[in-house]
Specification:
By secondary structure, the protein is α/β, with parallel strands linked by helices. Helix content is 43%, strand content 14%. It is built from 17 helices and 15 strands. The strands form 4 sheets. A 5-stranded mixed sheet has the order 5-4-1-6-7. β13 and β14 form a beta hairpin.
Length: 490
């Protein structure tokens, strides 16, 4: 149009690099082609014209959170002649109505995170992963720690629930792997940190959690109850981490692991690969972290128990066997997430795997047949109706052997034979080898020959060392005494 002020339409068009016909068209109508389009009008009558303002809008005003599908079902009941084809139209109309007349919605405010300020902890379930350890399903969850600024992550396999022990162990592992501590530690309303039970339990657990944070000079905080998105810096990464684990499991083509340590190494490798992506930001945040204290603080709970005549003690609805010589003694027990350390006075006696109560609420059992085999030898019939009989057998082959013995022999003979087999496994330290032989007998439906097995695992005379003891003559000692007296006289 600037060229047109001095030139003819063909010359102005040539200078503007378009055709002369376009120049003559602009002379007649200077509007753009998109501005010349006729607005699209409705092609069919509005099916909701008579009912939306009269019926739908009052429903939405009375119940703002009413779902569109519920409104659709109500209209179908009142006006079946409208037909099911109006559903999408109704949903669009309701969405548009709410944009104009609906309630105010909650706004999410994105935050600026400072290096070294905020670390977050949470637990996430892993039931959908279907992990097995040596063929046995693993009921577990992950403790997940993350730094808000750099995205540093740490994951720890937890066998129990969201306990203070699991929180303390996982958090300290994360901080020592990181090499520093943030100034603030954020959780949701974890029962491990903020107990919502009776006042005594709440005070006890809150005190221990606060002492843990004081030890690392962190300020404890939590989000508002029921508002999970306030912990979005870790709630979202939960899903990313679990998807990465699922992808790794699919590529591995197997969800079974030889032992718990192998599974923990698998999780640690995935987390380390994720941290490698944020290595530069993590290095920046490490310089802003607080230094760690000289040592870790305790990540266990302590309890005092007494060993009963049953040859064990009960703790947290789980019965644990111990050597019978401890009956009547008072023991101090340290509870970790997956183990118990047992002390008498200041002396550590043993480490036991930690058990869990059954989902039904019934007591669990952690039994070592070595602790009770001496008494079972004297009372073999006690095995028949023993409360923890199924837990007594160290391997599945022993349990199946006892079932076969009960089918073929009397109860007394079956109990005696089974106790003899357990005693043989204990005395000759051949639990695994004996289990293989029992499994072979079970495969052909044959009862074990206790006498033959005892002979098989008897000590081999050819392997016994030939110890020759040479006695020193007594006269040699007399000579030593004479030399000693001579030295004194000198």
């Amino acid at each position: 149009m600037k060229f047109r002020q001095t030139d003819t339409p063909p010359v102005a068009a040539a200078k503007a690099s378009f055709s002369a016909s376009t120049a003559y068209r602009l002379e007649k109508n200077p509007r753009l082609p998109s501005q010349n389009k006729v607005p699209r009008e409705r092609r069919r009558p509005d099916p909701l014209a008579d009912v939306f303002d009269a019926e739908v809008a009052p429903m939405l005003q009375a119940a703002p959170h009413l779902r569109a599908v519920a409104v659709f079902d109500e209209l179908m009941r009142r006006h079946p002649e409208l037909g099911a084809g109006i559903r999408r139209t109704l949903e669009r109309r309701i969405r548009a109505w709410r944009a104009v007349h609906g309630e105010e919605r909650e706004v999410m405010f994105r935050q600026v995170h400072e290096p070294g300020r905020l670390g977050l902890s949470d637990f996430t379930g892993m039931g959908d992963a279907s992990i097995t350890i040596a063929g046995a399903p693993l009921d577990h969850r992950l403790y997940h720690f993350r730094l808000a600024y750099s995205g540093f992550e740490h994951a720890h396999v937890v066998l129990g629930g969201e306990s203070f022990v699991a929180l303390a162990e996982g958090l300290q592992n994360a901080l020592w792997a990181l090499g520093g501590a943030p100034r603030e530690h954020r959780t949701d309303s974890l029962s491990a940190a903020f107990r919502n039970l009776d006042r005594q339990a709440q005070d006890d657990l809150t005190r221990r959690y606060e002492e843990l944070c004081v030890h690392y000079r962190m300020t404890p905080s939590r989000n508002n109850v029921g508002v999970a998105h306030e912990n979005g810096a870790i709630e979202g990464p939960h899903g990313h981490l679990k998807r990465a684990i699922e992808d790794a499991l699919l590529m591995r083509s197997c969800r079974d692991f030889d032992d718990l340590d192998a599974y923990r190494r698998f999780i640690a490798e995935i987390v380390s690969r994720r941290n490698a992506r944020h290595a530069k930001r993590i290095d920046v945040e490490r310089t802003a972290l607080q230094p760690l204290p000289d040592r870790r603080t305790c990540d266990y709970e302590e309890a005092v128990v007494r060993v009963t005549l049953s040859g064990g003690f009960t703790l947290r609805k789980v019965f644990y066997t111990v050597p019978s010589r401890l009956i009547g003694h008072q023991l101090r027990v340290r509870l970790y997430d997956e183990r118990l350390e047992v002390f008498i006075g200041g002396t550590q006696l043993m480490t036991l795997p930690r058990g869990r109560a059954r989902p039904s609420g019934k007591h669990g059992h952690v039994v070592d047949y070595r602790h009770v085999i001496a008494s079972l030898r004297k009372k073999p019939m006690a095995l028949l109706n023993l409360v923890y009989r199924d837990r007594l057998f160290p391997r599945d082959a022993y349990r199946r052997t006892f079932e076969l013995l009960r089918e073929r022999l009397s109860d007394r003979q079956a109990c005696r034979a089974m106790v003899d087999l357990l005693a043989l496994a204990h005395d000759r330290a051949c639990e695994a080898e004996l289990a293989e032989l029992l499994a072979a007998d079970l495969a052909i439906g044959r009862l074990p020959d206790v006498a033959a097995l005892r002979q098989r695992f008897a000590p081999d005379p050819a392997r016994l060392p030939n110890v020759v003891v040479e006695f020193v003559p007594l006269a040699a000692y007399e000579g030593l005494l004479d030399n000693a007296r001579g030295g004194d006289a000198a």
